[in-house]
């Protein structure tokens, strides 16, 4: 997933922009109308039976959930909301909503700035929603305290910053940037057996924050030598850094330069680097793979999700729902998967609550036992999944790999965790 190291830098960059006003998108069931899945799509199996199952429409009074999703400004994530919309339509049409009540998403459009996030949060809280669905809100450090003051649970989404990972009203089904970096480091040392790593990162405070997070994990996993290779976020040519990686003799190059992956991977290939490569989720975007001119081939990327394009029932359900209900052209990536899975997980858990769910009963339900996690590892919200991040409920990842120009998942059951290696959340 897109990392807070990058996003923090972006947030700082856009802080000076005029904040966009909040705008509610209304009902989830009336927003986004992709084409209906055809008979040859994953929506159909064998005799034409829909992967959605038997229709069961929710007809009760709506359960309204607030959401902030960044869709204007320097960095946008429209696919997060589109994933949630697709899931809500599926739930409302085929699962009977939440105990007969349809899910409605009241969205406020964010732009990544704290001012807009706070304004949106106040607007949503004033409407007294049942809870807040996390999406792609870079301004969460400003919005979550407002939800907490309003006694609203904050459920799922993409925890771009430490705030949603530690807030007492927050339930997070996976960790990104902290968790996937750490799991990748464990995989590098324990599974790939590398002893030397070149870490390429942006030379700003946000980029440098990865060093104290990932260095102790690498060392605990058996890596003995780490070469730090800073790269300016505005550098047009990373060839000198690529040359440093090559001359270091590192067995693995770890690329944590969002918005710079394509050029860095291309430069590594140009200088003849033949070691292993790991990258963060943005490095696996199709345009980045194409821009790398073959430099991305073989690259490993940690993901909290079972491959969305796979053949599992959940993957086929996700693909069919996105095709049917998400806006045409919506990216099918980890961001849209998080939006979709959040709604599915919330529907499953709130359906176990008798009567109208309250913040207390919602949080209690999530914190009791271990639960299925859509397209991901089962989660347990006991505060122990990740050290120093009590709101994180799962710290398990699968390793994707770029083969030629495609993202593959060689093993969909070999989950990697940083538990026992990660020293705790800092910063």
Describe this structure in words.
It contains 14 helices and 17 strands. With 427 residues, the chain is of the alpha/beta class. Helix 3 packs parallel to helix 4 and helix 9 crosses helix 10.
* Radius of gyration based on Cα positions: 21 Å
What does the largest sheet look like? 5 strands, parallel
Strand content: 15-25%
The pLDDT mean sits at: 88
Query: In whole angstroms, how far apart are the ends?
Result: 19 Å
- Which ranges are low-confidence, i.e. pLDDT below 50, for 5 or more consecutive residues? 1-48
Strands of the widest sheet, in order across it, are 4-3-5-6-7
Number of helices: 14
- The coarse silhouette is globular
Question: What multimeric state do the chains show?
Answer: single chain
Total beta strands: 17
Helix content, binned percent: 25-40%
Structural class: alpha/beta
Supply database-style keywords.
427 residues; alpha/beta; 4-stranded parallel sheet; 14 helices; globular
Quick gist of this model?
The protein is of the alpha/beta class and 427 residues long. Helix content is 35%, strand content 17%.
Task: Please write out the topology.
Blueprint: H1 4-14, E1 44-45, E2 49-50, E3 63-70, H2 78-94, E4 103-110, H3 114-126, E5 131-133, H4 140-149, E6 154-155, H5 162-166, E7 170-171, H6 178-191, E8 196-202, H7 205-208, H8 210-220, E9 225-231, H9 239-248, E10 252-256, H10 261-270, E11 276-279, H11 286-291, E12 300-303, H12 313-325, H13 334-350, H14 359-366, E13 370-371, E14 379-380, E15 396-403, E16 406-408, E17 416-417
Parallel strand pairs: 3-4, 3-5, 5-6, 6-7, 8-9, 8-10, 10-11
Antiparallel strand pairs: 1-2, 12-15, 13-14, 15-16, 15-17
Helix pairs in contact: 2-12, 2-13, 3-4, 6-8, 9-10
